């Protein structure tokens, strides 16, 4: 074993992980030095969270190796990882809401009392000491975690990770719910002096530059490179995140007529974390929403379709004020508003029913002849739209769960088109589908807009926004942060806006 | 040659899993259940010469007709992932209202019978409202309804229901046409109606969507909340109607007339191939389950076992049938049937 290797705190070499046909991590290698704060950067879906899960023992890699201080590291689970000195503060907090702060901090090893039973008093005392030590003396260790605010829970999640992390500490978006970041920075600096290696994951470049010395960039499941942050400009980093290869030549859609009537008018809309959002979608226009995870895009779509309660603001469909209470009501209002959901498994397909039945469900009463729905009638009704989304006719009588994900997605897109609604709300319409299917879906969306329909879509993939949208709205923290039109929609510009850097051509937000 | 070409089609390169046409699990299940019933009837001849005769088969079918109609309602409730435990109480309600409101003779029977069914359906809808809007679990809500209805029936009749059967119900249950009891024609018509409703109408399709995935159905524009009341109302009306049939069959009502039907109504649906979790099943399968269960009950009672042993054997056979008829095994059988056919 070379001395170089032993000097490293953590070595991650050529880690790969696939879920079925989906490659989450292709090959990731990172070296962390003791006492180093190392940033992990990458777009949504680049593989950051899979890497975090592998490091913290939640999932096992398919291949590759990891070592800590020169000895191999193969965790069997979160607890095993913790006992080996690796702890994680997860982005989706992993605290147990019905247990107290003390129990959450102590688990899985509750201090034992005289009879070998868990000792409440000792647990309270040691939890109190920990809280004091990490500057949270105002927390009562007996409080159930469920009553804490989101930011307090995040603090607790972070403190718990710190207490277990002797060798490697992983902080996954630790500031997502924190208002006061100085508290965290102070703790990080202190831990650093204890020679713990820290992997810091954040979308906020400013933070990363304050805390970290080096950064590794992930793209499409690969580690693209590690840079000294002092020597890399923001532009360099954006370019590594987005990659040159992402600039494929796909035909840009024709620009929309700026004077067409407004199909969907949103004014001051609030709901969930969405806060005072206003925009218009005109007839024949495709408007894209760009946002990092959890910036209010989900609430925007769900509010429009009546799944989340509106806290204020108005929605007009074709100039008529609408108060939508359910997706069914949205379909029937005026020229209709149809929604393609985010997760096709849990919100989209009806497993066990045929593809044709799945497609015609919203318009089933129109398909019935004399009250009876014949399977052949369903297929006839689905036939034409199946061709529009490039779905083969023979799939129509298959059960939909027997189709590949891409074909399921085509069928679901056909479903919203078939409703006859003139405004489509598409939430990540190409999530997890292959390149060919993506092109078919783009074609169908463009054709719909060219025929005068209007489309509002969210995408987690920047190239998709660039190639498909006439206009792109960036959401940040529940508000509209920037808006770009036509040629100004550029991947690097949007990446900047996504993390709160307005660069390049920022147009005034339309009222 | 052409046939071969058609066979090869599904093998074409694709990531889709449907390698070849196979018999539907539901179809195989239905065939197996009907097959078992026939085998059971034929074999019962060896037990007692009186069994297996034409008149015996007709008796079994008359007895099965009660269960068939009940398990249609129960089947719709199970299709959406619920459970209706109020069936016995609503049978009693239907029966008691028929003997007391109409009684012997036929005065006003043409509007009284539908009115009674509407009352029953409304009781079912109340269960549905509790389930949908108060979020009470289905089996607790329907059991609560059941207790209330049974108590009301007890109070209303002071313990002994008066009156007898309207003559039209006697006609339905007792008269024959072309050598077959009228009620069997009626049940056949009901089966056709139920099968179409569950599998080939917009309502049936929406119910199945609701049972498969409530969230996805909601997003596809189905008004899930109001829809969820419908099966409970239909089930209650079916139970009320069976109460009327039983009045015609035994010329009177008792407060415990529905008691023996609750578990069979669930068992018939599940043996018929529906998932107890909802989202799958056909009414034809359920009909097979109801006939199989009734045949079984008749054969066991003909052997002359005591009531206790009878219940034990019935229970064991139901559990056995469920294990055999479950998923994997049937897919296996289906595929083998197909391979042999080639």
Please give a quick description of this structure.
Chain A is of the alpha/beta class and 511 residues long. Chain A has helices spanning 3-7, 48-55, 78-83, 101-106, 120-133, 150-164, 181-193, 205-211, 234-242, 297-304, 327-332, 344-348, 355-360, 364-367, 375-388, 405-418, 435-450, 462-468, 491-498; strands at residues 10-19, 22-32, 37-41, 63-68, 71-72, 86-89, 168-172, 197-201, 214-219, 222-228, 262-271, 274-282, 286-290, 312-317, 320-322, 337-340, 423-427, 454-458, 471-476, 479-485.
Largest sheet of chain B: 2 strands, antiparallel
User: Approximately how much helix is present in the residues of chain A?
Assistant: 25-40%
Strand content of chain A: 15-25%
Number of domains of chain A: 2
The SS-based structural class of chain B is mainly alpha
Average pLDDT of chain B works out at 84
Share in β-strands of chain B: under 5%
What's the total count of β strands of chain A?
20
Q: Which descriptor suits the 3D outline of chain A?
A: globular
* Cα Rg of chain A: 25 Å
What oligomeric arrangement do these chains adopt?
heterodimer
Instruction: Give the number of helices of chain B.
Output: 15
Count interface residues per chain for the largest interface. Answer: A-B, 40 and 29 residues
Category by helix and strand content of chain A: alpha/beta
Walk across the major sheet of chain A and give the strand order: 6-7-8-3-9-10
Strand order of the largest sheet of chain B: 1-2
CATH C-level class of the largest domain in chain A is Alpha Beta
How do the helices and strands line up, and which of them pair or pack?
The complex is a heterodimer of chains A (511) and B (342).
Chain A: H1 3-7, E1 10-19, E2 22-32, E3 37-41, H2 48-55, E4 63-68, E5 71-72, H3 78-83, E6 86-89, H4 101-106, H5 120-133, H6 150-164, E7 168-172, H7 181-193, E8 197-201, H8 205-211, E9 214-219, E10 222-228, H9 234-242, E11 262-271, E12 274-282, E13 286-290, H10 297-304, E14 312-317, E15 320-322, H11 327-332, E16 337-340, H12 344-348, H13 355-360, H14 364-367, H15 375-388, H16 405-418, E17 423-427, H17 435-450, E18 454-458, H18 462-468, E19 471-476, E20 479-485, H19 491-498
Parallel strand pairs in A: 3-8, 3-9, 6-7, 7-8, 13-18, 13-19, 16-17, 17-18
Antiparallel strand pairs in A: 1-2, 1-4, 4-5, 9-10, 11-12, 11-14, 14-15, 19-20
Helix pairs in contact in A: 9-19, 15-16, 16-17
Chain B: H1 2-8, H2 25-47, H3 54-79, H4 87-102, H5 109-132, H6 138-157, H7 167-174, E1 176-177, E2 180-181, H8 182-200, H9 202-212, H10 214-219, H11 224-250, H12 262-271, H13 283-303, H14 307-325, H15 327-341
Antiparallel strand pairs in B: 1-2
């Amino acid at each position: 074993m070379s001395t170089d290797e032993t000097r490293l705190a953590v070595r991650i070499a050529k880690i790969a992980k696939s879920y079925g046909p989906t490659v989450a991590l292709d090959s990731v290698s990172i070296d962390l030095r003791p006492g180093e704060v190392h940033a992990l950067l990458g777009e949504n879906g680049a593989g950051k969270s899979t890497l975090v899960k592998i490091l913290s023992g939640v999932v096992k890699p398919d291949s590759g190796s990891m070592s800590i201080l020169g000895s191999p590291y193969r965790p069997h689970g979160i607890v095993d990882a913790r006992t080996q000195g690796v702890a994680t503060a997860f982005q989706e907090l992993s605290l147990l809401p019905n247990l107290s702060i003390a129990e959450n901090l102590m688990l899985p090893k509750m201090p034992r009392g005289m009879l070998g039973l868990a000792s409440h008093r000792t647990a309270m005392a040691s939890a109190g000491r920990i809280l004091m030590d990490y500057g949270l003396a105002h927390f009562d260790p007996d409080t159930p975690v469920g009553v804490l605010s989101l930011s307090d829970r995040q603090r607790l999640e972070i403190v718990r990770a710190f207490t277990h992390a002797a060798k490697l500490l992983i902080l996954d978006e630790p500031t997502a719910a924190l208002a006061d970041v100085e508290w965290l920075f102070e703790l990080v600096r202190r831990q650093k002096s204890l020679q713990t290696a820290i992997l810091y994951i954040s979308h906020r470049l400013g933070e990363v530059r304050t805390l970290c010395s080096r950064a590794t960039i992930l793209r499409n499941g690969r580690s693209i490179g590690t840079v000294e942050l002092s020597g890399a400009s923001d532009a360099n980093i954006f370019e590594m995140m987005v990659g040159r290869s992402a600039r494929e030549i796909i035909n840009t859609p024709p620009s929309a007529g700026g004077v067409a009537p407004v199909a969907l008018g949103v004014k001051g809309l609030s709901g969930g974390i969405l806060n005072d959002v206003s925009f218009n979608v005109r007839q024949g226009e495709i408007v894209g929403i760009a946002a990092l995870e959890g910036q209010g895009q989900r609430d925007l779509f769900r509010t429009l379709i009546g799944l989340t309660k509106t806290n204020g603001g108005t929605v007009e469909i074709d100039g008529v004020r609408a108060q939508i209470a359910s997706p069914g009501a949205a379909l029937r209002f005026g020229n209709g508003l149809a929604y393609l959901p985010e997760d096709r498994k849990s919100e989209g397909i009806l497993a066990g029913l045929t593809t044709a039945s799945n497609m015609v469900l919203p318009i089933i009463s129109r398909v019935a002849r004399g009250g009876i729905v014949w399977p052949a009638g369903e297929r006839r009704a689905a036939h034409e739209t199946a061709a529009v989304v490039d779905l083969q006719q023979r799939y129509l009588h298959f059960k939909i769960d027997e189709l590949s994900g891409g074909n399921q997605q085509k069928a679901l897109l056909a479903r919203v088109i078939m409703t006859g609604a003139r405004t489509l709300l598409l939430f990540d319409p190409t999530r997890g589908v292959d390149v060919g299917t993506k092109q078919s879906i783009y074609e169908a969306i463009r054709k719909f807009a060219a025929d005068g329909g209007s489309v509002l879509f969210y995408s987690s993939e920047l190239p998709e926004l660039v190639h498909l949208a006439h206009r792109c709205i960036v959401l940040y923290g529940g508000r509209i942060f920037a808006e770009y039109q036509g040629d100004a929609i550029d991947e690097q510009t949007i990446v900047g806006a996504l993390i709160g850097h307005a660069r390049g051509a920022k147009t005034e937000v339309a009222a | 040659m052409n046939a071969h070409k058609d066979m090869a089609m599904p093998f074409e390169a694709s990531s889709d899993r449907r390698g070849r046409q196979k018999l539907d699990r539901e179809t195989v299940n239905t065939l197996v259940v009907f097959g078992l019933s026939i085998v059971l009837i034929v074999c019962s001849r060896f037990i007692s010469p009186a069994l297996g005769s034409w008149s015996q088969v007709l008796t079994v079918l008359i007895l099965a007709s009660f269960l068939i109609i009940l398990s249609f309602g129960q089947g719709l409730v199970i299709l959406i992932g619920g459970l209706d435990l109020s069936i016995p109480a609503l049978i009693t309600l239907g029966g008691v209202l028929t003997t007391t409101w109409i009684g012997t003779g036929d005065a006003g029977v043409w509007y009284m019978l539908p009115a009674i069914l509407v009352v029953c359906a409304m009781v079912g809808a109340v269960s549905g409202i509790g389930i949908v809007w108060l979020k009470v679990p289905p089996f607790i809500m329907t059991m609560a309804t059941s207790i209330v209805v049974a108590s009301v029936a007890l109070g209303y009749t002071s313990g002994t229901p008066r009156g007898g059967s309207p003559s039209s119900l006697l006609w339905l249950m007792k008269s024959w046409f072309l050598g077959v009891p009228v009620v069997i024609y009626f049940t056949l018509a009901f089966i056709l109606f139920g099968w179409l409703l569950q599998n080939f109408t917009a309502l049936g399709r929406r119910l199945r969507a609701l049972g498969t995935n409530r969230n996805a159905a909601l997003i596809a524009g189905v008004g899930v909340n109001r829809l969820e009341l419908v099966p409970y109302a239909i089930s209650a009306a079916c139970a009320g109607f069976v109460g009327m049939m039983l009045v015609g069959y035994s010329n009177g009502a008792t407060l415990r007339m529905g008691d023996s039907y609750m578990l069979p109504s669930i068992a018939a649906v599940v043996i018929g191939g529906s998932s107890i979790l909802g989202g799958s099943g056909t009414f034809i399968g359920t009909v097979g389950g109801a006939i199989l269960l009734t045949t079984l009950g008749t054969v066991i009672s003909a052997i002359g076992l005591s009531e206790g042993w009878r219940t034990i054997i019935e229970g064991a056979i139901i559990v056995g049938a469920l294990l055999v008829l479950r998923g994997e095994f049937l897919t296996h059988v289906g595929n083998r049937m197909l391979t042999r056919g080639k």
